[in-house]
Amino acid sequence: MAKRRPTLLGAALGAALTATVLLLSTAVPTSAHNGGRPEDRGARNLGYSDYGVCRGTNPDCYHDWDNFDPTNGYRVLVYSRTVGPRHAHLGPALGPGLNPPLTEANAAVNGLRKLGADNNFAVDWTEDVTQLSSAGSLQRYNAVIFMSTTRDTLDDNAQTALMQYIRSGGGFVGIHNAFGTEYHWKWYEGLLGGANFYDHGPNQPGVVQIESRRDASTAGLPRRWAFTDEWYNLIPFPSQVRVLATVDEDTMLRGTTGNLGHPGHGDNHPVSWCQYYDGGRSWVTTLGHSVDAWTDTPTEGDTYFLAHVLGGIESAMGRKPFCR
């Protein structure tokens, strides 16, 4: 008997089935306990997305267009606008314009200003979204720091300006609740390393573990150091990034489960990482919840934390090698 020739419908169904099998065979179910090298863990989750841009640890993703001349010195912009809950380390909301008056309660912004003063780079600060309304206005900054911003902190003009700034080789630093920002903007989620804040467990002591000591933000730090934080749980999990530091969940004595039920990330719980993204540099950390971490009040691990943030800023703005 002659063999039946496949119909077009049958061929199409067969191709679709083959593609589905290939997809499922390469996917690893999302888990709170992902294994492998720290920089590879997130890429193996179903939550992974490429965000349609060049990103990862390859410097070829950076646009080295000579837009930032180091002979002009270094300057960063701290942006801390909140549209919703506000962390205590931010203190009262700031007035309009650039560099509005600060009080002692504006601890995090004061702490970043001090880092700049002590390390020879200029720091401007604002919670006025119009100060981010054009890429040209951002070009004077070697890095833009999102300091515990909240929810939809940018309007359409500021979103466009931030994208253009990053695409021109700009630097981005995201600290603590920068992960609780712009949830509905996928490009920004990619800027954070393909990650977002989901929930956190109790504010409690834990031990930070340095995963790479070659980076400017980790060089000279101990392999392990005690610190107190909220220890953010993340969905999606970061992907295609270089994980710089994790937290040892075994040292979190009050448990790892978040207030929305996330069980924690087991032995692979990242707290800081870096990547090249859409032409720019991005260094981010979930750390920095405590008010005292930003002040002169001595707290366990605060000097290591501030050194970590300083290295992240200096590398993101191009003053030191990035994402090593």
UniProtKB/TrEMBL annotation:
Coiled coil segments of this chain: none
Question: Hey, what's the signal peptide range on this chain?
Answer: 1-32
Protein name from the UniProt record: ThuA domain-containing protein
Which species is the source of this protein? Phytohabitans maris
* PANTHER family associated with the record: GALACTOSE-BINDING DOMAIN-LIKE SUPERFAMILY PROTEIN, SECRETED GLYCOSYL HYDROLASE
Q: By its UniProt entry, which Gene3D superfamilies does this protein fall under?
A: 3.40.50.880
> Which UniProt keywords are listed?
Signal
Q: Which domain of life is it from?
A: Bacteria
